[in-house]
Specification:
Helix content: 40-55%
Largest sheet: 8 strands, mixed
Oligomer: single chain
Distance between the termini: 54 Å
Radius of gyration: 32 Å
Strand content: 5-15%
Number of helices: 33
Structural class: alpha/beta
Number of strands: 24
Low-confidence stretches: 126-130, 521-569, 590-597, 842-870
Length: 957
């Protein structure tokens, strides 16, 4: 570390920023005090003394102060300027003016872009007070995210004409961005805050938008020109490639990842190949190396070629969209080009440290960006870990060994971040990256790029290259789809703690280091000047014993005396690769980039190596387990908008999903232009991500109460992505295509189907039983013309069951209506419900180990005493039909006499759920009411009959 002061400074700066990001208030102060107390001891342990300690302490404090200073200034000035509270400003109408500061993204009937607001004028019909309405426009400088709802298909062309730099006037309303409404859910408000955006501005119709093109110097906006160029390049790609190849190649060549077909992106994501679909360091490396090769053909001098490429790198960063990974690669390439131009030694770790510091100084919120984290971690990891991994492939052919070393290192380094954010990892990711990344990067990417450029000269000349690229793309798509079809390779991981991630990297490094030291015998190594030598005076050829990187390429790079054309061409080509890929150079050396003496391990080292290997495997096993409190059942009422979805985790770790929500569409099929490329679907966007974040490896049962879309629609994504052991439904279908597709998916995946009938029971574990009290198939009005009966009264025929778990009782009612409630009350009164349980107790084969006769004491004791409803009391009632007036009659609520009632409804839903009359009846029974539309997700932890309740949106009464 002493030989790399910039690396040490960057690490301390990032640690300071990280602590300031993670902690607030007094916890931050105490955290800083504790860190400052421990840091000198740590620095002394790694032999950093004297003024260097103060230097690194200053870096740590500077990182924390810089974060806090920027974070304190990152707030909206609208409430203060307008003298309106934030909650009152939500939904407030106004006319605003500003400058369009992003490209316009058009997707179906919506156009999205960012503006830099300059003034705001309240609209007279706003809810603000009259004095504010009568006032003049307010000058304000703040960025907004604008969403324009397009009303006609022609408005798509109008929106496409809006360009970055235009002066724009909008009439619409302010809306607070949505916050996370489920524990561990995506927080859009926090995400936009990292972009320094605090408000959405929603506009209805392109007629509410007035755009004026800039004049004077504003016409020469570099970013405006960049958007125009990207659009032209994208059009050229669309001219050469049909879909889905066009979107795929636009993402691959230009970085337009949003144009990639969602299905294709999902397939690549599952195999960990999404880094290919966006511009990354690999693209910058190909660009730099190609430019240097072309300039060498033009017989330019080495210095001139390096200067030209140095100037052109920022242009490529802009054209590729400027993602954090591209900015990182661009900065590192520019530093490498400058140092090569000056004839200075290049150190990859110093260069990446400089890039991190520059980016963090410009915007500290880069630290929270997934692309930033993966790019820096993988790049630094390749420099540090790959020298140790190279030796594992020493017996392979050199070209294969290099690819394998890069692939394994990148996968091992990216693994913790992958499961942290995406909660899944495919074991085939190693194979997919090994086989496909080289094909795509070395062949498809250059072919597509050359074809795109040739299309501007003569399209027929570009067509053959495009055809070859499409054939290779098809081979890639088929390979990816086939690998994803193989069962059992995708593992779901709960979100790991940050301490576990740090331990993972430490143990992995220690294990690889010990294996490297003891792998093979001592070999002579000729002196090679280090391209990445640590900056220690008087030691030009000393390798870092801990993290050093060597490159045999430097023998060519540092040779300043080559005047032959062929030698210069070879030197520039190699130089381009070594500058753009400093993290990869170790893969192509004889011994590996890090110079470590090869010695036999002592017995102590062997025992230590074994202990580390066991610890590493045990750590992976521990992280893979689904977190659950011992002996505690958890019922999680998810907030999925206007719909129902409940996850039940039993005390023994079984998982039951009741309904999956669903997005109800009222669209007209004739207006296909409104369809978005990746429409919002609650199952794929909310339910499945939450299940994965909570480490649900499989669902022991999925229960769909009825076939309505707001209960069953989201289950399609669940069945496609989560293993399911049982599928239970009311034995009927609605006759709609969506539900029929759901049943077909279950059968295709060989999931057993169970038609629930009144009197059945399912014993999930020793402490958990589900007793189904509806539907009564014998009295259902169904059409049996098909294989599955069709019922037009799905609400009435909802599955209703009593959950008994860990000493608590909960009644789930689906969307049952008042007549269904009345029928059940009559059956309880005349004893026929109890008779159903006695009759069918030996007819169901759902439970493991045989059939269980279950007749709940609750039902038995009260089946003949309808009037004595006061003696019946359950702990929790899941209120039927989102609190609709068609359910929850007074007699029903009084009979069950629930201590707690839960209502699942969407915020500001158009149905008016929950109904005020239902709320009054619930309050009259004395139930504590929890509502997902007001409180977000509601969780109940059950143990020994006690229920502990928490909800996501704190501060709600």
């Amino acid at each position: 570390m002493k030989g790399r002061p910039l690396l040490s400074f960057a690490i301390c700066w990032l640690c300071g920023s990280g602590i300031a990001c993670a902690l607030t208030g007094w916890t931050l102060i105490w955290g800083l005090i504790g860190a400052l107390a421990c840091l000198p001891l740590l620095l002394r342990f790694i032999d950093v003394r004297g003024w260097s300690v103060l230097f690194l302490l200053a870096a740590f404090i500077g990182g924390a102060v810089h974060w806090e200073w920027n974070d304190a200034r990152n707030h909206s000035s609208l409430p203060e300027t307008l003298h309106i509270a934030a909650y009152e400003l939500d939904g407030w109408s106004a006319e605003i003016q500003g400058e369009l500061v992003s490209d316009v993204r058009i997707d179906g009937d919506r156009a999205d872009f960012k503006i830099q607001m300059s003034s705001i004028l309240p609209i007279s019909d706003s809810s603000a007070d009259t004095d504010l309405v009568a006032s003049s426009a307010f000058n304000i400088d703040e960025q907004l995210m604008v969403q324009v709802r397009l009303l006609e298909e022609e408005e798509q062309q109008v929106a496409a004409s809006w360009k970055r730099g235009d002066l724009i006037t909008l009439n619409g309303s302010f809306v607070l961005p949505g916050e996370a409404r489920n524990f561990g859910g995506f927080d859009y408000r926090s995400y936009l805050r990292t972009l320094h955006i605090h408000w959405l501005f929603k506009v209805k119709g392109a007629s509410s938008v007035t755009v004026v093109a800039p004049e004077g110097l504003g016409q020469y906006n570099v970013l405006r020109w960049t958007d125009w160029t990207r659009h032209k390049l994208g059009s050229a790609v669309e001219q050469l490639f049909p879909e889905p190849h066009a979107g795929y190649m636009k993402g691959l060549i230009i970085g337009m990842a949003t144009d990639i077909d969602p299905g294709t992106y999902g397939q690549f994501s599952q195999l960990g190949l999404t880094h290919i679909l966006a511009i990354s360091g690999t693209h910058v490396a190909v660009y730099v190396a190609s430019l240097l090769l072309i300039l060498s053909w033009l017989r330019l001098t080495r210095e001139t070629a390096l200067t030209i490429v140095l100037i052109l790198v920022p242009a490529y960063v802009l054209l590729s969209g400027g993602s954090p990974s591209v900015i990182r690669a661009g900065i590192m390439s520019m530093i490498g080009l400058y140092m090569a131009r000056r004839g200075l030694a290049r150190d990859g770790l110093q260069m990446i440290s400089a890039a991190a510091l520059l980016m963090m100084w410009w915007d500290p919120y880069f630290l929270l960006n997934v692309s930033f984290q993966l790019s820096f971690l993988v790049t630094a990891g390749l420099m540090i870990y790959m020298p140790l991994i190279n030796r594992l492939f020493s017996s392979w052919p050199k070209s294969l060994a290099a690819t394998a070393s890069v692939t394994v290192t990148a996968q091992l380094i990216s693994f913790p971040v992958t499961i942290l954010y995406f909660n899944q990892f495919s074991l085939l990711s190693f194979v997919a990256n090994f086989l496909l990344v080289s094909l795509i990067s070395a062949i498809v990417l250059p072919l597509g790029t050359v074809a795109m450029l040739l299309s501007f000269i003569w399209v027929p000349l570009a067509k053959p290259l495009a055809w070859i690229a499409m054939q290779l793309n098809q081979l890639t798509f088929v390979s990816v789809e086939w690998m994803n079809s193989l069962p059992g390779f995708v593992l779901i991981w709960a979100t790991p703690p940050l301490l576990w991630i740090a331990a993972y990297y430490a143990v992995l490094y220690a294990l690889l280091y010990l294996l490297h030291r003891g792998n093979g015998e001592q070999q002579e190594t000729a002196f090679v000047e280090e391209e990445t030598a640590p900056l220690v005076r008087g030691q030009p050829s000393v390798s870092m014993a801990k993290m050093g990187i060597r490159s045999s390429m430097s023998t060519m790079v540092q040779d300043q005396g080559k005047n032959r054309v062929d030698g210069k061409e070879s030197s520039l080509t190699t130089l381009g690769a070594s500058i753009a890929w400093p993290e990869y150079t170790s893969a192509f050396t004889a011994r590996g980039a890090g110079y470590y003496s090869s010695e036999r391990m002592s017995r102590t080292q062997q025992w230590l190596c074994g202990l580390l290997a066991i610890s590493f495997i045990a750590g992976l096993w521990w992280a893979y387990q689904t977190p659950k409190p011992a002996g505690t059942g958890i019922v999680q009422f998810l907030d999925i908008g206007q719909g129902d979805s409940t996850l039940i985790t039993t005390p023994e770790g079984k998982h039951i999903l009741v309904d999956g929500g669903g997005t109800v569409s009222f669209g007209n099929t004739e207006q296909s232009w409104k369809t978005r490329r990746d429409p919002y679907e609650v199952g794929a966007k909310v339910v499945v991500p939450l299940l994965k974040k909570r480490g649900i490896h499989q669902l022991d049962a999925v229960i769909v109460t009825h076939a309505d879309q707001d209960h069953a629609g989201g289950l399609q994504a669940v069945l496609e992505q989560i293993p399911v052991k049982r599928f239970m439904f009311n034995g009927t279908t609605s006759g709609k295509d969506n539900f029929d597709k759901l049943l077909d998916t279950a059968m295709e995946r060989k999931i057993p189907l169970y038609a629930i009938q009144q009197g059945m029971s399912y014993k999930a574990d020793k402490q958990t039983s589900l007793h189904f009290i509806a539907p009564d198939l014998a009295h259902m009005d169904v059409n049996e013309s098909g294989n599955v009966p069709v019922s037009e009264h799905q609400n009435h025929d909802s599955v209703v069951f009593l959950l008994e778990m860990a000493g608590a009782s909960m009644l789930f009612t689906g969307d049952m209506d008042a007549p269904a409630e009345q029928d059940l009350l009559y059956m309880i009164q005349d004893g026929s419900l109890a008779a159903q349980f006695e009759q069918k107790g030996a007819d169901i084969g759902v439970t493991e180990g045989g059939v269980q006769r279950v007749l709940t004491g609750l039902l038995r004791d009260n089946s003949n005493d309808y009037s004595a409803s006061s003696s019946v009391s359950i702990d929790v009632l899941k209120v039927a039909h989102h609190g609709s007036k068609t359910s929850s009659t007074e007699a029903w609520l009084q009979y069950w006499n629930a201590k707690t009632a839960v209502i699942s409804a969407g915020v500001n839903n158009t149905y008016g759920h929950p109904n005020p009359g239902v709320m009054e009846r619930l309050e009259a029974t004395g139930s504590d009411i929890y509502r997902t539309d007001q409180m977000g997700e509601v969780q109940m932890r059950v143990k020994d009959g006690n229920i502990d309740i928490r909800y996501k949106l704190v501060g709600v009464e």
